[in-house]
Every structure is written in C-alpha cells, then in structure tokens.
Amino acid sequence: MEVFVKTIRDIPKEDLYIAPGHRLCAGCGPAIAIKLIAKAFRGPTVVVMNTGCVEVSTTIYPYTSWKIPWVHVAFENAAAVASGIVEAFKTIKRKYGKGVVPDVIALAGDGGTFDIGIQALSGALERGHDFVYICYDNEAYMNTGIQRSGATPRGASTTTSPAGRVIPGKLERKKDLIGIAVAHNIPYAATATISLPVDLINKVRKALEVEGPAVLHILCPCPLGWRFDPSLTVRVARLAVETGYFPIYEVEHGRYKINIPIVKPKPLEEFIKIQGRFAHLLRPENREILEKLKRDVEEQWKTLRALAKLEIE
After folding, report:
1. pLDDT digits (tens, 9 = 90+) for 237-288
2. N vs C: which end of the chain shows fewer Cβ within 10 Å?
3. pLDDT tens-digit profile of 154-179?
4. pTM, whole model, 2 decimals?
5. 107 by DSSP, 3-state: which?
6. How far is 258 from 178, CA to CA, in rounded Å?
7. What b/e sequence results for 211-246 when a residue is b if at least 16 CB atoms lie within 10 Å of its CB, and e otherwise?
8. CB 152 within 8 A of CB 90
9. Range of 300's domain?
10. Domain for residue 150, yes or no?
11. Cβ atoms 99, 93 nearer than 8 A
C-alpha cells in the first residue's frame, strides 16, 4: 500500500467529517485522535461508537459533531453492531446489484474495548468481518469517574485503585490488546499515538484498505484522569514512546514490524513524573511497584523484539 501522507504538511487541512464545537476537555487526547483518524477517511463511512467520553461529548442531544452516518450503541457491542452494518450493506449489494459498501469503523474507549466490549470484539474478529476497530486508550473509565480498566497500567492511581496505605495504585499489569487481536489471525493490527500524527493517519488508511478486520490501539493521554496540565498532552504521548512505555508497531498477516525502534529509551521517570496518577511511585516506600512497572516495559520490549526479529536485524 502506498503511504497516504509522508509529512505533516501532507495532512489534509479540511475537517470534512467532524465539525467544531464538541464538548471534550481542553487538551483531550481522544479529541486529537478522532480528528486525526478522520483525516484518513476515504469515502462513504459509517462510524459506530459505544458509550464513552467521545460519544457523550460529541453528540449532546440535539447536537452532533459528526458530519457522517454515526451510530450510538451500548457499551458492550460496538464491534457486533459494526459487523452487522457491514454485512447488511453487502447483502443489499448482492441482492439488488447496486449500492456501495461503506467503510465501517467502530470507535471505542479502553473500557469498552479491553473489558466490556472484548467479547463482541473477539467474535467479530473470529468471523472475519471487513471493518476497522479503533480503541482510543486513555487507560481508565474517564467518562464515569476515572475507574481503573484492563488498560490501566500497574501502579496508576484511580478512583477504584487509589494509592494510599492499603495499595500503591493498581496492582495488575495492563492487558496486551494487540496480542489478543493478533491471536485471531486478522490481517492487520497496529499501535499508534497522537504524538505521531503521520504514523497514525497512515495506519488508519492501511487498516481501511485491508480485506477483513483490522484493529488499531491508539494511546490518548487524558489530562483529567492522568492529572497533568492540558498543555502537555502531546508531550506526555511523546514521552510514552520515547521511554518505551508504549511501543509503536504493526502486525500484517502475523508478521511484526517495529515502526519506532527505541534503542536508548529515556528513563521511565521522565514519563511518570509529570502525571499525578503516578506521583506516589516516586516515593521510597513505593519503589517496588515502580520497579515492577519498569519490568513490565522491559518484558514487553523483549517479547516484541523477539516477534519482530526479521525486521530489526
């Protein structure tokens, strides 16, 4: 597939699919993500979105920021509804010999993907429907009060994993969403983040053009839940990559490719020290949980390098 955009200057300036005036927070990572995602749309498109920050803030009745067909569904079934829409359009075209099958995109947060929506997503991937599933990951249930999710990293303080005398934040490791998706033998899966807009846009376009299901996992920092100044959103996302916390890679037909090799990562402390959710990890009594988080990052990279050995030799 040809690269859709080569530099930031090539990114389309017009916002053809999303209107201004949404009510997402200042500095909202998912707000930046959906704007970039829409730059890669290529024609007739239907967006399916379950309950989440983006849904409630872009479609406050009777208003909407979406200029294209858009469907709100229950928290758990974005992938199921998206797959049904794809097959309905295919059936109409087959039976009546006319019409087009639009690009169908399911857009969901980490709560609606890693946890509540994982069953519907797994079923849709196993059946092989031709749609794109995009998770905008702000690493907690931000819409309902900053509760921990399966995407919340070890050590992060949330309202349901509060750092204090009992626990030093969340005790469990973050799920490997792309690993779960790849296990379904889908043609394309990838990670991306808002600090790398060219990479993100090209991966959305690639996902749209493959035949069969594709999954994108996009890291989207949340100033409110992560507790940093809204002006730092892109910087936080960039540090997530530069410290190795969030690897940027893609998997095409089972073959791994690391897009941003991090040979000499910055200290993980550079990423966590500007976030209030990790402030307690810098205290001596919580050194052990910080070391576990570092090991999580190291083990993730060790596994990823092994899987992508043909691409990095």
Report:
1. 999 999 999 999 999 999 999 999 999 999 999 999 999 999 999 999 999 9
2. C
3. 999 999 999 999 999 999 999 999 99
4. 0.96
5. strand
6. 13
7. eebbbbbbbbbbbbbbebeeebbbebbbbbbbbbbb
8. no
9. 26-312
10. yes
11. yes
DSSP of 208-238, one letter per residue?
Answer: HHSSS-EEEEEE---HHHHT--GGGHHHHHH
Task: For the chain, give the number of residues.
Answer: 313
Question: 8 lies in a domain?
Answer: no
CA distance 83 to 311: 33
Distance CA 206, CA 276 (A): 36
User: What confidence tens digit (pLDDT) does each residue in 101-130 have?
Assistant: 999 999 999 999 999 999 999 999 999 999
pLDDT tens digits for 275-292?
A: 999 999 999 999 999 999
Q: How many structural domains comprise the chain?
A: 1
Tokens of 173: 């490791």
**Beta-strand (E) ranges in the chain?**
45-50, 70-73, 103-109, 132-137, 188-193, 214-219, 249-252, 255-258
Tokens standing for 45?
């498109």
- Structure tokens, 174: 């973050």
Instruction: Determine the pLDDT at residue 99.
Output: 85
CB contact at 8 A, 107 and 134 = yes
Distances (CA, A) of 103 to 52, 99, 171, 271: 22, 13, 39, 36
Domain-located, residue 121? yes
pLDDT of residue 312: 47
Q: Residue 129 and residue 110: Cα distance in Å, rounded? A: 21
- CA 115 to mean position of chain CA atoms: 14
Tokens of 36: 């970039």
Alpha-carbon distances, residue 77 vs 111, 112, 238 (angstroms):
12, 8, 31
State residue 161 phi and psi, 5-degree precision: -140, 60
- Residues 114, 149 contacting (CB under 8 angstroms): yes
CA distance 194 to 200: 7
Cα distance between residue 98 and residue 207, in whole Å: 25
Q: What is the DSSP letter of 171?
A: -
